[in-house]
Amino acid sequence: MPITRGEKRSVEVVKVTDEMKSFAAYGKLRLERMNKKHLGARQKKAAEAEKDEKK
Questions:
Q1: Could you give the 3-state DSSP secondary structure of residue 42?
Q2: What global pTM score does this model have?
Q3: Which residue, 5, 7, 24, 35, is most buried by CB atoms nearer than 10 A?
Q4: How many helical (H) and strand (E) elements, i.e. helices and strands, does the chain have?
Q5: Cα(38)–Cα(36) distance, integer angstroms
């Protein structure tokens, strides 16, 4: 299937403004994204700490 360049994106990309940054929901979304990103590392660290505690 050939790549066509004439199609428009279905998602509009916008710059984050100061107004968006100051809005409390934006901070909450960033916090939740960070929590999701680091969840696996935190679980691994907790499992290792529990393993070391048993020794």
A1: helix
A2: 0.46
A3: 35
A4: 2, 0
A5: 6
